[in-house]
Amino acid sequence: MELALSVFVCIALYLLRMYFLNRPDKKMIRRMTRERIEVMEKKGYAHLMMQDASFKNPVTDADTDIPSRQKKLQGMLNEMMARLGLMPNVTVSVQMDEKGQMTRDGRAGEYDGGARMIRIFLRKSMDAGHMTSILCHECAHCFMDRGGMNVQDFQTNERNTDITACLMGYSLQMLSGYTGYIKSSEVRMVRKILLEWRSTKQASQGKAQSQGQSGAASGAGQEARKLLSEAKRVLGKNKVPGRVLPSEDYQRLYRISEEIRLGQTEKQLETCLRSGEQGRQTLLKLTDDLRFVIRAMQ
């Protein structure tokens, strides 16, 4: 009796030790998430991480029979493949597996790259959220497989797959019922890191766009100043236009020449440059007027 109890305790301790050794800690999940983000960026998939994805016609708890579930899940997979830029040539196969015996390790789903198939093994306890998150996980396997993003270690690769599913834009769906290789709290952590990355990226893009607009405005301002200087030069050199103009052009020429002589054009130009984007249209009009004067007086 004592021997049996000792054996039982040893086995229990061994299993507990293996469980905690195999469970990732928060630092590991943070590191893996940041590594996955870096991989996604290098592979050219940053755009996928910039926004959350949704489904047009998702599976629901009202879809109780296997054919309707399979049809909905296939449509959802096709949407995902299109968003990921992958050939939609993977089939969803939904099968009942109440006792969890259809895979050796009791998995709820699997991706078969050779057969181009995602299998989902249904159990009565599964709701629509659970099925959706399994589909996202298995689609992430396909995405990683075709993108050359797999790693050899099984546990690491499975955790990377959960993280990648979140980074692909499906973090909310992964939270809807999946309990896989990382816990729900860790999925929330992945989403938090993703949102922080997204916020930093958007701020950086906004700054670059602002600098671009500022640079464009600065360039347009320099061009307008050069045109104003040239217009003053030709007006000082030539008292009459170099060719016969239509009457409306004479009126326009007189108006603009007077504005230049009185310094109004220069004041308008400086106001436009201080106004940024709001003064852009006025700046374009001033530039057009100055070009007109130069052409008319040459």
**Helix content percent band:** 55-70%
Strand elements, count: 3
Listing every helix as H and every strand as E from the N terminus to the C terminus, the arrangement reads HHHHEEEHHHHHH
> How many distinct helices?
10
Q: Compute the CA-based radius of gyration.
A: 33 Å
User: Could you say which overall geometry the principal axes of the C-alpha atoms support?
Assistant: elongated
Summed up, the domain count is: 2
Question: In terms of per-residue confidence, which ranges show pLDDT below 50 for 5 or more consecutive residues?
Answer: 14-22
- Within the largest sheet, what's the order of strands? 1-3-2
**Biggest sheet, open or closed, and with what strands and sense?**
3 strands, mixed
Give the averaged pLDDT, no decimals. 83
The computed structural class is mainly alpha
Distance between the termini: 114 Å
Beta-strand portion reads 5-15%
Descriptors for this entry?
5% strand, 3 strands, single chain, 3-stranded mixed beta sheet, 298 residues, mainly alpha
Question: What does this protein structure show overall?
Answer:
With 298 residues, this protein is mainly alpha-helical. It has 2 domains: 25-182, no CATH class; 215-297, no CATH class. The chain has helices at 2-22, 26-42, 46-49, 66-84, 128-147, 154-174, 184-237, 247-261, 264-275, 280-297; strands at residues 91-96, 109-112, 117-122. The protein has a 3-stranded mixed sheet with strand order 1-3-2, covered by helices on one side. Strand 2 (109-112) and strand 3 (117-122) form a beta hairpin. Helix 7 runs antiparallel to helix 9 (264-275). It is elongated and about 115 Å long.
